[in-house]
């Protein structure tokens, strides 16, 4: 049986996805989660084969991208399929960079969801038609890079410092140690950064930071 974990902060969608997957032959829903931390904990405890992951989990300093990255750090054999409303380039690129094997929009039909879950479980990469072209361009290095030298101009010096460390892959705890700040202060800085950049997730902020030259090569 293929064991699946469903992660989404909207209970109606989460329960609907769980019901759909649980009705399919050879698939069992191992559990559900509604936060990034809950997703990581559930993967550690339940060891699912596939995680169906939303990106916007209602947390300003955490997202499905961060959860995906941490899940794959702990259990690299887990397949993550992103199913989200977010269809912007930054979200697609950040998910691919974090290690997601698939990316669908929430408008995908049941047959498309089933095919994607089984495909990522088999080690395939599957992308919904709405995002496939942009993701391929990104992976092949042909995606347009927005020239945004002043995109981070609204940030304070400390916020730029925090964003630089985020773009280097550090989590909140490591950033707090590096800058000798409390984790609460780091979360506050991240919240301000997302607001000023009008970013929907930490992953999107990372993409913008790298385009602006932060985060190293």
Brief write-up:
The chain is built from 10 helices and 6 strands; from the N terminus they run E-H-E-H-E-H-E-H-E-H-E-H-H-H-H-H. With 217 residues, the protein is α/β, with parallel strands linked by helices. It has a 6-stranded parallel beta sheet with strand order 2-1-3-4-5-6, with helices on both faces.
Polypeptide structure, described:
- The protein has 217 residues and is of the alpha/beta class.
- It is built from ten helices and six strands.
- Strands 2-1-3-4-5-6 form a six-stranded parallel sheet, with helices on both faces.
Strand count: 6
Spatial gap, N to C terminus: 42 Å
Q: What's the Cα radius of gyration?
A: 17 Å
Q: How many helical elements? A: 10
Helix/strand order:
EHEHEHEHEHEHHHHH
Biggest β-sheet strands, sense, barrel: 6 strands, parallel
Chain oligomer state: single chain
Q: Can you tell me the overall shape? A: globular
For this entry, give a set of tags.
alpha/beta; 6-stranded parallel sheet; 10 helices; 50% helix; globular
Which helices and strands occur, and which strands form pairs?
Elements: E1 2-7, H1 11-22, E2 27-33, H2 36-46, E3 50-53, H3 64-74, E4 79-84, H4 89-98, E5 102-105, H5 110-121, E6 126-127, H6 132-139, H7 157-167, H8 172-179, H9 183-197, H10 202-211
Parallel strand pairs: 1-2, 1-3, 3-4, 4-5, 5-6
């Amino acid at each position: 049986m293929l064991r699946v974990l469903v992660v989404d902060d909207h209970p109606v969608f989460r329960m609907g996805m769980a019901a759909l997957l649980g009705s399919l032959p050879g698939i069992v829903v191992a559990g559900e989660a509604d936060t990034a931390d809950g997703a990581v904990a559930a993967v550690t405890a339940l060891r699912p084969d596939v995680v169906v992951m939303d990106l916007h989990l209602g947390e300003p300093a955490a997202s499905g991208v961060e959860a995906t990255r941490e899940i794959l750090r702990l259990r690299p054999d887990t397949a993550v399929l992103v199913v989200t409303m977010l269809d912007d380039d930054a979200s697609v690129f950040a998910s691919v960079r974090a290690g997601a094997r698939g990316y669908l929009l929430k408008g995908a039909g049941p047959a498309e969801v089933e095919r994607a879950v089984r495909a990522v479980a088999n080690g395939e990469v599957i992308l919904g038609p709405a995002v496939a072209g942009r993701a391929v361009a990104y992976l092949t290095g042909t995606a347009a890079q927005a020239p945004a030298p002043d995109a981070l101009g609204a940030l304070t010096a400390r916020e730029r410092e925090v964003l630089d460390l985020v773009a280097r892959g550090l989590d909140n705890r490591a950033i707090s140690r590096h800058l000798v700040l409390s984790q609460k202060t780091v979360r506050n800085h991240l919240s301000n950064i997302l607001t000023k950049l009008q970013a929907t997730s930490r992953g999107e902020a990372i993409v913008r930071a790298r385009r602006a030259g932060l985060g190293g090569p």
